[in-house]
Amino acid sequence: MALEAAYHYLQLAAVHVTSTQAILLAAFLLLVIRLARLKTSAQTEWKKQQLPPSPPGKLPIVGHLHLIGSHPHVSFRDLDAKYGRNGLMLVHVGAVPTIVVSTPQAAEVVLRTQDHVLASRPRSPVADIIRYGSTDVAFAPYGDYWRVARKVVTSHLLSPKMVFSKRRDREEEVSLVVAKIKDICATAPGTVLDMSELLGGYTSDFVCRAVLGESHRKAGRNKVFRELTEISASLLGGFNLEDYFPRLANLDVFLRLICAKAKGVSQRWDKLFNELLSEYARTSQPSLHNNEDSSEDFVHVLLSLQKEYGLTTDNIKAILVNMFEAAIETSFLVLEYSMAELMNNRHILAKLQKEVRTSTSNGRKVDMIMEEDLSRMPYLKATIKEAMRVHPPAPFLLPHFSTDACKINGYLIPAGTRVIVNAWALARDPSCWERADEFLPDRFLEDGRDAEVDMNGKDPRFVPFGAGRRICAGANFAIATVEIMLANLIYHFDWKLQSDLEAAGAKVDMSDQFGMTLRRKEKLHLVPSIF
Ligand code: HEM
C-alpha cells in the first residue's frame, strides 16, 4: 500500500512538480534505484556536441522534469523560446532523452522529410497490456505488422466510402440527441444541460454503433465500452512514470503496481470481446469485405478480412480497442471546445447561426440538417477548424521514435530517440498566425488570411491529425461525426449560460488539463431554448 501511494504521488509529482516535490522525487528514486542495484546507463550513446541544445538545470534522475509544469505543452513552448534552436530542444524527461519539436520548419522535417526514420513509436508498457502487445495501429512499432494493420483500417474501416456509408447512422444518433434536448426544453424550460455528458454520450454511442452495430445500445454495452475507453485513455495519457523511468518499470514490484490497473482493464476488454466474437460467430456469417459500402459494423468487416490479412483474434481485438479509444474522446473534445468558444464569442455564434439556418435546401425550415446540407456551410467548417487550431485534442500528437540515426537542422538525432511534436505550439505560433491566441474562424474562410491552410498534414503550421506515415487514420470519420452534430445544435437551439452567469456577463472557463488529450478542466453547462 505504501509503495502504491508513493507511486501515485510520483505520478502526480511528475506532472505537477514543484522544486520541493522534485527533491523528494529525486530522493525517493535514488533510494529505490540503490535498493534495486540498478546502474543508470541511459545516456551513454548521447554525445553532446551535435545534439540539439538542452535547457540548463538538469538534475540527476529526474532530468528536466522539475522544469515541466502541469501544462507541459506550454512549458515546452516557453523552454524552446529560451533554450531551443531551429525549433529543436533536447529535454531529459526522467531517464529518457526526448527531442521536442516546436517550429513548423522542424516539424516539416520530422513528419515529412525524415518521416521514414521517425515513424515508429516508443515502447509503452501500458499499451503493451491494453493493446495486446501494441498490435493495434497507433502503438505498433513501424514495420510490416503496422503496415498491414494500417491498411486494414484505412482501406476498409475508415475509407471515405465507409465513412460516407455511416451517414444515416450519424444522422439518427444526432436526431436522438436533438429530440432529447427538445423534450427537456418543452417540459422543463431553463434546465441547465451537462453538455459534456451529452456530447460525450453522442460520440460514444455513434462510435459504438459503427464498431459493433446497432444492437449494443439496447444491451447497454455502449456504456461499458465508454467506461473502458475512459479508463484506458487515462492510463495511457500524459507523462507516465513507467515511460520515463524504463529501468524502474522493469522492477518486479513496480511492474505489479503500474500494470495491475492496466491488466484489470485489459481483462475487462478481453471478456467483452470474447462474448461479442462468439455471439457474432453464432448469429451471423462474416460477409465479404467488398460489401463495405453497406453500413456494416467494424467487427464484421474485420472478421471477414481476418484470413486475407493474416490477423489473429488478438490483433482484431487490439484494432477494435484502438478504434474506440482514438475516436470517442477526440471527436467529443472538438465538439465541446467548439461550443465553449462559441459561447465566449457570441458574434461568431450569431454568424454561424445565420449560416446554418439559411443553408438548408430552399432555405425552408427542416426537421434535421442532413449531411448533404453541410457543403453549403463554410463557416461551420471554419469554426471546427479554428476550434482544433486553438485546442488541438492531441497537443503532442502521439510520440514518434527514431529507428535509425538522422540529422535534423544540422543536429544529430540518435537511433532509438523519442520525438515529441508540440502541435499545440505550432498552431499558436505568433510568427505564423495573426492574433494566434484568439478564436477567429474567419481566418479560414475563402477570403481569409489562412484560407489555404488545411489540416490534412500538408501544412506544418497546423497538424492536429499529425502528418506523414503516422497521420491519423480517422480524420474523415472524426470530421463527419463533429460537423453534423454541431450544425444541428446550432440550427435547432439558441444557447445561453445559466441565468446568473449570463446576467453577470460571465465567460466559459477555458482552462485545460494535460493528458494524451487536452481536456477542458470544467464541464460545460449550457441552457438551450428551441429556435
Ligand atoms: C478530432 C479527432 C481526432 C484527432 C484530433 C486525432 C488526432 C490524431 C493524432 C494527432 C494522431 C497521431 C499522429 C502522429 O503520431 O503523428 C492520430 C493517430 C491515429 N488516429 Fe486519430 N484523431 C482523431 C480521430 C480519430 C478517429 C475518429 C479515429 C478512428 C475511428 C482515429 C484513428 C487513429 C489511428 C488508427 C491512429 C494511429 C495512426 C498510426 O499510428 O498509423 N482518430 N490521431
TrEMBL record:
**Alphabetically ordered keywords of this record:** Heme, Iron, Membrane, Metal-binding, Monooxygenase, Oxidoreductase, Transmembrane, Transmembrane helix
Q: InterPro entries, per this entry? A: Cyt_P450 (IPR001128), Cyt_P450_CS (IPR017972), Cyt_P450_E_grp-I (IPR002401), Cyt_P450_sf (IPR036396)
A Pfam family for this UniProt protein?
Answer: p450
**Record's SUPFAM superfamilies?**
Cytochrome P450 (SSF48264)
- Which organism was this protein described from? Urochloa decumbens
Tell me where on the tree of life, at the top rank, the source sits. Answer: Eukaryota
For this chain, one GO molecular function annotation is:
monooxygenase activity
- CDD domains on file: CYP71-like
This chain belongs to the protein called Cytochrome P450
The regions listed as transmembrane in this protein's record are 12-33
